[in-house]
Amino acid sequence: MKYNTESSVVSPDGLGPRFGVLVGSYVAALIAPTLTLFTVEYLGLRSKVLAFAVLGTIGITIGSGTAFLTTDNGQIASWLNSGWVAWLFPLLGLVPMMAYHFSVLEVVAVYLIDPAAIPVSSLVGATGFLLGIVAAGAGEIAIRAARNRVASSAIASENVLIEWTSRWPRGHKIKVQIFTMVTGLVLVGLLSFWYPPYLTVLTALVVVTLVGTTNTLLSDRAYKLTPVGLEQRRSGSGKLLTWHQFIPKSQIKYFTVSENDVILHRSGLLPSIRFDRNDLRFDDEEIINNLEEYLNRRE
Q1: CB contact at 8 A, 35 and 27
Q2: What is the tally of helices (H) and strands (E) in the chain?
Q3: Which one, out of 2, 8, 193, 256, has a CA that is 20 to 30 A from the CA of 100?
Q4: Element (DSSP H or E) covering residue 10
Q5: Which UniProt keywords apply (predicted)?
Q6: 8 Å CB contact between 62 and 32
Q7: Could you tell me the residue range of the domain that residue 46 belongs to?
Q8: DSSP assignment, residue 295?
């Protein structure tokens, strides 16, 4: 494992071919449909078989090239491990879904009348919509894989000072859940005035998913403190639901202690890390003492 003391970014030596294939599939799913549409329009293709052959060729070329470039590039894992940019990785899958949703409607409408009359461009666009869903899923899995590898590498090379399990402070958790739900309901209400019902239903499903995801994100986490940073882990049923993240010490500006919680304030716009002091499953004084030894404390 490599460790850069200047930027405090932990970089594994490499993530292996499976991660490269995952990232390659993500990039290909995002880009291939758009390039195929340009090719179809430029060449005036009218053959559905030929259009899908072009889509497959472009997708395989982009995916293979991206996989080759990312397989042994540990810096990508470090990039996905920190910063708000990583949150955009799976969300980019929504872009083709929004861009091509009219193609889906056109394909369905024409199919009900005359399946042979479906335009090639609409068929490629509908495929791009489906690949947007694939890209969103692949992006989320890629982030989990990268962060898990970074955390494992960091913990393996350092002494663990103390371990504990904690939940988010209840008051903060309720505020975040209410904010997410109210914002989602307002968005659904506004869309219902200007957009077709199917978009409103789709947005409502997204809001329900976000509320459930928020509740999962704020569940109990296991923490390991090392001299160079903090690992946080949240486990679910199965390997794909296990989530690790290693936060270098340089990203933590200081921490504060109140009657009910401990807050580790991170640099920039990165979200703070909160522990509930009322959680009787750990000795909070011992944890605070260890934090004071390696981090700045402010009253």
Answers
A1: no
A2: 10, 10
A3: 193
A4: strand 9-11
A5: Membrane, Transmembrane, Transmembrane helix
A6: yes
A7: 13-156
A8: S
